[in-house]
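Study both lines:
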Amino acid sequence: MTTLVWLRDDLRLGDNPALTAAADDADGVIVLYVLDEESEYVRPLGGAAKWWLHHSLLSLREALGRRGIPLVLRRGAAEEQVPRVVRESGADRVLWNRRYGQARSHDAALKAALRESGITVRSSPGDLLFEPWTVATQSGGPYRVYSAFWRACTAGPPPAEPLPIPEGLLPSKRTVESEELSSWGLLPTDPDWAGGIAARWEPGEASAVRALEAFLETRVQRYARRDFPAEETGSELSPHLRWGEISPRQVWHRTLRAGGDTGMFLSELGWREFAKHTAFHFGPLESSNLNPRFDAFPWLTEADEGFDAWKAGKTGFGIVDAGMQELWRTGFMHNRVRMIAASLLTKNLGLHWRIGESWFWDTLVDADEASNPFNWQWVAGSGVDAAPYFRIFNPELQQKKFDPEGAYVERWAPYSVALPQIIDLKSTRGDALQAYRALPS
């Protein structure tokens, strides 16, 4: 008999509770990844995310291979593929790390079906510092305000210490057929638009650990200036966290050991937690307004010329155009600029936040099913703990404040200074506020 470990958004060996639990099986381990694009709970990956997944799986396969353990790849509905691999391998135990979004009900159903067939199934804590049911208001409900949520998180027991890479993992004695990763078509080919992404990023667990160490060594003490996009102050850990190449527990405890003034950085992990807790209680976030009042807001629901100019970085607003170019070329955009760009789309151009969220979903390497729509709703004003709708980011003032020398714009969109601005900020702001005031209370 053997143990099947089913990996999802946890593509690492270190601090992997499911893998650690499998290390006690003398009959060996099979590690499985299923590319599920068929189950109804699945949101199909965007192009940039597919590129990252391909290279992350290559890295994981190599790391497992050094320990003599193959990575089994299957494509199809997980409720069909997991039991199939169980039968083919003769596994009597299935382990995985929990998911907290739409997939959790699917996981529960699969767990029940496997147990009915006599298989032992166990799930372990997933990619959160604090599991959603451990943090609640005094009335027992979920938090809707970040500051109160994070105070409650940090007032309780600290996050669990991360687990080391498990020793003693043994390969199963039974060979299970794996699909070829290249057959999944995750990489762009005609044309190959990922050159800039490949130049900036190196997916994989080892790269994630190096990124964290580099940040703690050189930039964390300057993190207070994280809003200045021309300065290298960010951690750039978000895609590694999204794919589980490093866990939030590893980041949390390593950062605390590094010492210094790290509270602001750790609070950003808290914002990530807040997004995932919100999705757990209220999701899916990409399909509906968290504040139902905004169901009546007259957003434009079809892409138009304004959207075309926005996504191409040709709005005439330098910091927005620079951000959209950075996104297209590298699969990433500075966080402050994401907010400015989202505000322009939703509150000046009048387009529905779902249109912008969908574009980010397709082009970001760190596109996350909770954080991406959560942050769009925050800017649009329709989310929990939302910026008030009347808080509209003026891109000209934001550029003067956060890119005063124009270095960020010069790097990514120097052409923008010669472009006419596609809208009048004052009039569109007035139109947005008038529509907001007309909403039913």
Notes: The mean pLDDT is 96.
